């Protein structure tokens, strides 16, 4: 019997946002593993467990996932991580891979699980979903991500302003991730679309270092973290006509 | 001192997905309130707390939110609900409004909070975010909602097939909510776009009655619940070029 590889979502940073099921796994006999950017580096996911009052077990496995888009480097890292956890799983012990946020939303766990299953298709994989940083950000601001019939887009800002132009007419909420590299352009775009009062900048959402900026123009003079997002509500969206069960039909289908 | 109005997200149905902070509120002195469709009706949110082993307190407040799009009817319901909780808050006691899923994502809490604040702007409102049904569905299926640089759209299917056509080229994942009224048209659209093998239908995601259907054509002969969604991965998406920090710049900004 193989142990289970469990993606344990811990939420964005507040240990109160750990789910009860994730907690049960953390205090079980499962062997912990967690992602680090480099050998000996800090792990944000592990930090959440620490703040919850849990000490990392002595046999915990830091797994190195470098911050790069180089596919060959990444593939080697995933393979090495899979090699590190496979003996544990084959010995029948569960591995709890700690994930910041939600394991299904921009998380490393997907790649680890794929690499492990490529080596041994019999390993059972389980995912415990969790709260994302942008949900926590919206909650903290008292802003809904979506009201009735709203449409929400979650997009890395790196796709560029042209893409934002194309998406804006179709969405009530835009969650712009990783805004740092394009921040000035995004600020210009918000101003040009009259959205300056409907957007909020959040750095390290859901963590103890969270910073919220509503006076967006002040950002032009600031240094911001890579972990920055923007919540944009689009009050001017033309809602269109919804089909049966929602709004009167008008032949769009 | 007013009590706090707390939107307590309980996740989609599995009591293990209740967060620790939500749990703490449930077992605190806060007075519970929960949404029902009609007087004397069942509450899905309350059912989650029950399955977690918590008995609803004798002084719990069922608040009627009818299932309608009639804005006048809804406004009256919100006002009545606000009238019911306001005396509790003014007496200094917290009110824990139980929410299925996430209080910021298509939830009634937004309207209740607005109605209460309209009557008394001094009431502190707090939102505890939670896991959504579609996150739980993705986790259960072992499907990521988003991998690196993916874009995700969350749209009520009622916007129609034309809208899906417009959105498809821009997204790696489409979360189609409330697919029931348009189900046959959505099935045709998936087939026409070669997405039949990349879409999964989930009814009552995250609840004990969850039903997953991958053989989509069988749905044409089935009765489905109003609480149905479709997760669609778009493997053919043209990823385009991302800007600095993500992929090589190519002048989109």
Structural description of this entry:
Chain A is of the alpha/beta class. Chain A folds into two domains: 5-128, Tetrapyrrole methylase, N-terminal domain (Cobalt-precorrin-4 Transmethylase, domain 1, 3-Layer(aba) Sandwich); 133-233, 2-Layer Sandwich (Methyltransferase, Cobalt-precorrin-4 Transmethylase, Domain 2). Helices cover 28% and strands 19% of the residues of chain A. Chain A has helices at residues 20-26, 44-51, 71-90, 109-119, 133-141, 161-167, 183-192, and strands at residues 5-9, 31-36, 61-64, 95-99, 125-128, 152-156, 173-177, 199-203, 211-213, 228-233. Chain A has a five-stranded parallel β-sheet with strand order 3-2-4-1-5, with helices on both faces. In chain A, helix 2 (44-51) links the parallel strand 2 (31-36) and strand 3. In chain A, helix 3 packs across helix 4 (109-119). Chain A starts with a strand and ends in a 20-residue tail after the last strand. Residues 244-253 of chain A have low confidence and may be disordered. Chains A and B meet through helix 1, helix 4, strand 5, helix 5 and strand 6 of A and helix 1, helix 4, strand 5, helix 5 and strand 6 of B.
């Amino acid at each position: 019997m193989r142990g289970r590889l469990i993606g344990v979502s811990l939420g964005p940073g507040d240990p109160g946002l750990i789910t009860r099921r994730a907690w049960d796994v953390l205090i079980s006999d499962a062997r912990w593993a967690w992602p680090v950017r480099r050998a000996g580096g800090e792990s944000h996911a592990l930090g959440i467990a620490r703040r919850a009052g849990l000490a990392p077990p002595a046999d915990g496995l830091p797994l190195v996932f470098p911050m790069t888009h180089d596919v060959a480097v990444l593939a080697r890292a995933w393979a090495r991580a899979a090699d590190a956890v496979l003996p544990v799983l084959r010995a029948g012990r569960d591995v709890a891979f700690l994930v910041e946020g939600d394991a299904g939303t921009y998380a490393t766990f997907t790649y680890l699980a794929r690499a492990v299953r490529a080596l041994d298709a019999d390993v059972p994989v389980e995912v415990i979903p969790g709260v994302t940083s942008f949900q926590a950000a919206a909650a903290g601001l008292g802003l809904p991500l979506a009201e009735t019939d709203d449409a929400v887009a979650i997009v890395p800002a790196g796709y560029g302003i042209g893409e934002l132009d194309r998406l804006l007419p179709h969405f009530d909420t835009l969650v712009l991730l990783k805004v740092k590299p394009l921040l000035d352009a995004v600020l210009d775009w918000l101003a040009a679309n009259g959205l300056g009062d409907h957007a909020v900048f959040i750095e390290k959402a859901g963590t103890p270092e969270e910073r919220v900026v509503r006076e967006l123009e002040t950002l032009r003079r600031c240094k911001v973290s890579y972990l920055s997002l923007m919540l944009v509500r689009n009050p001017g969206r033309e809602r269109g006509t919804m089909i049966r069960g929602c709004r009167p039909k008008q032949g769009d289908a």
